[in-house]
């Protein structure tokens, strides 16, 4: 779809240079449209972000200093100063940071800059949950009613149950209480209010009917300065963890056509009623059956949403372009009747986090970053970038668009399987599992989906033959490197691991980053064109000294092609192509079934290092004069742990950091030898 | 490729022929017999003792070596079947060979505690002295993985002298600048204590390694002192008090780790020129070596068929191709190491002996190692040969071989009888390595000839005494003698007596010779400048 700007050229005339006041993927996304429209871009960056992808993408970027958001991206004044200094005419806030900050929107306008977003008044009105819901009801938006709490002793008596107590301010589930019957209401209101007061400094709560097993459905709207408001269809974002979306799609697969119509019309009515300009999203909860009688208005997000690409995919609209045009004063170049939805789009958020560990964020350097093919990838990360605890840990949005939902899911799943993101733990295996899971494919996706599917959360990536091939590719990549030109092996011309009298093969143990506590034992013997491999722990030695039964799996491997970075490996007659890379001394292997990071367990334990790592060792042979700590005691740098007398001198054994004493190995008067571990310490972070 | 040595050899063997297939089947059967002997070695001391060793939490000698050498590197086990056909167990309780540690080719020997408690018999010493000699001649760091109950006392008469020589050899290695490392995994008693004692570096495994001249019972006997093992000669005591142990290892793996650490700090570099030729594989499949030589050594075959499957790119530059045709001499390379090759296509005449002597001198001038491929039944006899100076010419070849200083390798691809064995630099001429194909026969002469000679002598003697020959008795005696010599000529008999460094699968010839040449290049490779007086 192409757009004709009306009045002609207003955008180009009014915005030649755009400040993008954000970081990461959304900056890259916005800059891409801006550049296509001939608009130059100015970015901002914190100190850790000084070489990040978003900074490279914009034409010029201004240092904000600092590391935390408060020190950098939340500094409204600095952003506006930078925009003015760099000759910008407009500010796009992206999402998060300053995006829904009405005060900032006002400051931008006051500085003579165009604010790419709704008016401060709309941000304020719709940011207040109670006011927004009242406005929605007034505008005729389909929703369950709202019951305000005037006073703790004046509870409404017409609340249908189950009901939900919610905080008027904030979000993230804090202050929320599900109430099943009227006699629980008073307690729930009191507790919710206390929690809201503590969390947001505002104890106002309200009650609304609670929809069991709801879906999250939202409508994209956009309005211009000329009184036009249109919707661009809905998105369903029911799959959430910790109240944050990870899978989003358009259209919603779980609502009836009349529900869709009611939601979209309602959203437009609400936006029209406030004279809403620019992009916004009206969020609803809908019953699992998707019927029109189970709808509850949630809130309005007065910004561009993270998940906007699915709408773009199915409607063919560039939402950032529309934002810029209406911000510049142009009329919307499309009317509602022009908007149609074609096919189905699904987006997943690839996040540096560990689903199996309660979705705990994972930080560190991203050592490999490559997403598979046939999909749209919106990202601000690349190999070498660092996921810092200061910022959102979302690495990328991956979007697939196909004629049907099933096809889109399959295409997206294939792209994820072929992805290689290393250095941090990611939710890619879980996302891959979701996209192939029967309930998901049947659109049985209430917001409780992940709680009800612990199996997809626990998935650690490829398994079975796929995992074998990934492991063996690492094994034989390592084997090849130990025999390559320039390796230390002076006999590399002889067949690998050659023996004239053979009693065993090459024995190794590997660990996978996704599951570091599990050792994968491998024993291989190279033959003319391949190898015989035993997988599994070698038989244990029993009490009488003989071996227990050997229940290792025996597989025949042929290495059909070996090139730098790629191995065509046949395992028991099944061939796969696996790419291999040396990363941090380990091997990263990747096939169309997924990827894995492998580390070869060291053959030897360095006992000196082991002892030194866990506590102080005795510097000289002598005897213990006194012990100054006991088990469980916390010690800090310089604390005296023990005094050892040796060579007629007293040696003070001190702690070198903050730690807890986990064991004291000697008592006063004991003889100690050089290298003896005196005290075991467990380090305490921070 | 104009820069390579020689031209490509063409094979005349038809691998689909009945003859080739028959050779292949017979050689395979002979190899299977050897492999069956190899299979016995790891538990030759008895499963009970193997289990007992493991039950004590100890590793077997081969497990120690596997854990010691670099991943994916080859290990060339030497003298694996020493003791075969003798009263001693196959392998004589020792595993030894050449392995790569931290990128350095080392000579490694280790005792197998599961074989008679690691005690030494006369062949044990002989086998260990062989590896010391290999370490010395090729300048390979020497690793001893030691634990031994000591000498097999009832056999002290046969091993007292040899034991002493072992310790002398070990310290002479040190003098020659060859590092010696001993890991004491268990007891090192009496004479055994001198293995760590004579080593440059010693590692004792905590609570396992001990060393004392006399154990607690002997000490009680001799001086009436009652003492425990640890106080007398434990790893801790030697590490902290006596100083015999340089490194105290926490456990066996730690001992191996420390050994690797020692080799790393040596910053060892080889002195030979190394691989200087292209090392492309032969045009003809080296695995076909299994079917090239007939199992019956009396059937001749063209030694060039071996060269075509052994030399890089099957390239061979033949020396004097039109002269002395039963000794095929020339130049080629194996895995990039240049070699001068001599091989037999029949018995040696005067021309062959003179040609061989000249070729050996040429290779000494160019510092080129020599590879002798034995398939020789001896020098020509008879009046024509004698009048033609076969002794004089044979002496030339033996003079050249004896005084040649470039490294010699022997590959036994068939028979090696009589003075032919000497002329081809056999065992008594101290080649660096000798490897044997399973079909090999070695003796002073062929069993039939030997029995026949004895029969003629018996008949002459009978005639001289004027008695009638008892034909039945003589036939029985001759057959028995032939069978005895046949038995004593086999590859297994020979390897059991350490006349070689091991029987190899013919298909492994290139790999084995390549490893041997690589070891050789750890030392300088230089030729002789003078010889004994030539009898012209």
Can you describe this structure?
The complex is a heterodimer of chains A (686) and B (536). Chain A has 686 residues and is of the alpha+beta class. Chain A has 18 helices and 38 strands. In chain A, the strands form nine sheets. Chain A has an eight-stranded antiparallel beta sheet, sandwiched between helices. An eight-stranded antiparallel beta barrel of chain A has the order 24-25-26-27-28-29-30-31. A five-stranded parallel beta sheet of chain A has the order 3-2-1-4-5, with helices on both faces. The model of chain A is unreliable at 1-5 (pLDDT under 50). By secondary structure, chain B is an alpha/beta fold. The model of chain B has no long low-confidence stretch (mean pLDDT 93). The two termini of chain B are 40 Å apart. In chain B, strand 5 (142-148), helix 5 (156-175) and strand 6 form a beta-alpha-beta unit. Chain B is built from 19 helices and 16 strands. Chain B has helices at 18-40, 47-55, 61-68, 122-138, 156-175, 194-197, 216-223, 229-233, 235-242, 252-266, 304-307, 350-365, 383-387, 390-403, 418-423, 447-465, 471-488, 491-496, 509-520, and strands spanning 7-8, 76-78, 94-101, 104-111, 142-148, 180-189, 201-205, 210-212, 247-249, 315-319, 327-334, 337-344, 370-376, 408-417, 433-436, 441-443. Classes of the chains: A alpha+beta (686), B alpha/beta (536). At the A-B interface, strand 24 of A face helix 2, helix 3, helix 10 and helix 19 of B.
Using DSSP, what is the number of strands of chain B?
16
**Apparent shape of chain B:** globular
Q: Helix content range of the residues of chain B, please?
A: 40-55%
| Helical residues, percent of chain A | 25-40%
How many strands, what sense, and barrel or not for the largest sheet of chain B?
A: 8 strands, mixed
